[in-house]
Amino acid sequence: MKLTALIMAGGRGERFWPVSRERCPKQFLSLTGDGETLIQKTVRRLLPLVSPEDIYLATNAAYLDLIAAQLPELPPENILTEPCARNTAPCICLAAGIFRRKYGDAAMLVLPADHLIREEALFLESLRCAVKAAETGRLVTLGIHPACPETGYGYLHCASEESPCNVTQFLEKPPFETAQALVESGEWLWNSGIFVWTLSAVTEALRLHLPALYDALSPAADAWETPDFAPYLAKIYPSLPSVSIDCGVMEKAENICAVPCRFRWDDVGSWRAIERIGDADTQGNCLQGDVVTVDSTGCTVSGQEKLIAVLGLQEVVIVDTPDALLVCSKQSTQDIRKLLAALRPHHCSVL
Amino acid sequence: MKLTALIMAGGRGERFWPVSRERCPKQFLSLTGDGETLIQKTVRRLLPLVSPEDIYLATNAAYLDLIAAQLPELPPENILTEPCARNTAPCICLAAGIFRRKYGDAAMLVLPADHLIREEALFLESLRCAVKAAETGRLVTLGIHPACPETGYGYLHCASEESPCNVTQFLEKPPFETAQALVESGEWLWNSGIFVWTLSAVTEALRLHLPALYDALSPAADAWETPDFAPYLAKIYPSLPSVSIDCGVMEKAENICAVPCRFRWDDVGSWRAIERIGDADTQGNCLQGDVVTVDSTGCTVSGQEKLIAVLGLQEVVIVDTPDALLVCSKQSTQDIRKLLAALRPHHCSVL
């Protein structure tokens, strides 16, 4: 079966402020320091399986120039511009409709643009396995063997040790004690947010579980590549509910399975990711730039030319950029949105 | 009796790094933001009591240009240049010898250049009181009614409620619980490090309690204003013991008294001083520059033009300068010297 891919690249990367900015969010940055941005990695990883002309990007208009500059190999007509952010379900529903018009039936990979995957060969192997499972009509998600009781992820309960295995329960962002129990049980996987399904299966699931959304977006898909497409989308999109594919479809559907994956994966969801991605020193500090630490443990510091001296601190994140400096406790990294809201009135130039 | 003054201005202000630097330590900075430096304040405060030609400064050669620029009213010959730092006793011993040659007997005020005093009229009143006590031959220190159980200060035990009162015990930097008990007893004062004595009394005390030091420095005083002075001092000074006047004389002498003072005083000894000097917001944060805080309490932030965003932090000090950023816990502000030692090998340009 033909393989197509939708890469969702509309995120604003707020929790990586001040390195990630509204005008250039984290998927367009090289957080790993190797010069390749997260979205470039995401596309390159797919190329052994999917041709560039079958890879689509969903994003918003502000990022079209960045995409053209970073991904010249993608046909410009494969960029789907969302009029506004409405989470993943509307975006997937729109893309699936467009793909059906173009391909009839096909396997559809759905991937966020900003995830980090270490072992790319294992990733491709898992994708092939997932495609095979999808071809039987199931909705497949890549499940990651949890490396730690991370509280920021969703968890999938797998009824058996088979691969793929049926998913019997979703649990989103559990508290720490719960996460610990899930990890210890050996029966739960992290939900990677990377999905594989056939166009017919996902269309059927959307029509069943999100019928209003499906009905609203079907005319848009029908108008794809006509002058009516953009005006219709601009009219209808803001009125759509903001709903994730996990909540809207995956948690309701019966035919869900997961392919357990062994590659190291990170959603790079907050500054805490740096301690998972980067190399920590013997005190557990992850340091980038000209940084000196004394009596400090578990700190993540991202600097540039300026010397950053850290003294007597535990579990603090320090991010210095030319026009804004962030200093925050590690346990507050999920609250950066709250900080950005506080900055918006008088500091919008640094957002 | 004639009044003379020695201002000790050789300190390196290390604990105020990175604002205070070796080339321009804190006594030459306006930490209060009013444009007047600490040493300028120290001299100006004395002028109602002491003429400029009777005010001497002890410092090191590196600061001669700063002193000339900031204190043009002082005669250049009143600047005593120490060849190296040897704490307060050698400096006071040398100055007392020089003063005796010039003035015969006189009252001598000794003051650090970098203390902050709020109520200047009360300060002058206390000094007048101290001079009177000194004229009876006693060694007088200004004692400050303690505002809190500060662990970084020395404490004086006063036997009575008289003013001046005899000092029966010195206690240097007690642990917090002890400091609490001292403050609650009402019998202890902070040792301000501001002293008043006659030249005859302090000379007698130095000869009695630090005889080797006294003997080594007498020839230097005799050579004052001759070509032999500088070479002799350069030869002898490095071999002198580094000893404070508190340890070397005050804790041993019998004729010590304190004038209890009511003015608010701060030795500006570390970044913690800013919370005592500055105005805190309702969350106990002292903020200078373009700073936004969220979910943060008790933080001291000193920035410049760049936005500093602080999230989810308690009791942290953040000091941003163009070439160095310090982030440290409040309880580590006394350990900045340890940090500077770590910086010296590879970052001496920012010291």
Describe the structure.
Two copies of one chain form a homodimer. Chain A is an alpha/beta fold and 351 residues long. In chain A, a hairpin with a 3-residue loop joins β16 (316-320) and β17 (324-329). Chain A has helices at residues 38-46, 64-70, 88-103, 120-134, 176-185, 199-209, 211-223, 229-236, 245-250, 273-277, 336-343, and strands at residues 3-8, 55-60, 79-82, 107-112, 116-117, 139-144, 154-158, 165-172, 188-198, 256-261, 265-266, 286-288, 291-294, 300-302, 307-311, 316-320, 324-329. In chain A, 31% of the residues lie in helices and 25% in strands. The first copy, chain A, has two domains: 3-266, Spore Coat Polysaccharide Biosynthesis Protein SpsA, Chain A (Alpha-Beta Complex), CATH 3.90.550; 273-350, no CATH class. A five-stranded mixed beta barrel of chain A has the order 6-9-7-8-10. In chain A, α3 packs across α6 and α3 crosses α7 (211-223). β17 (324-329) of chain A pairs parallel with β15 of chain B.
> What is the fold-level CATH name, i.e. the topology of the largest domain in chain A?
Spore Coat Polysaccharide Biosynthesis Protein SpsA, Chain A
Global morphology of chain A: globular
Strand line-up in the sheet with most strands of chain A: 6-9-7-8-10
Helix-and-strand structural type of chain A: alpha/beta
The CATH superfamily of the largest domain in chain A is known as Spore Coat Polysaccharide Biosynthesis Protein SpsA, Chain A
CATH hierarchy: architecture of the largest domain in chain A: Alpha-Beta Complex
- Helical amount of chain A: 25-40%
Mean pLDDT across all residues of chain A, rounded? Answer: 94
For the sheet with most strands of chain A, the description reads: 5 strands, mixed, barrel
Instruction: List the uncertain runs of chain A.
Output: none
SSE run of chain A: EHEHEHEEHEEEHEHHHHEEHEEEEEEH
Number of strands of chain A: 17
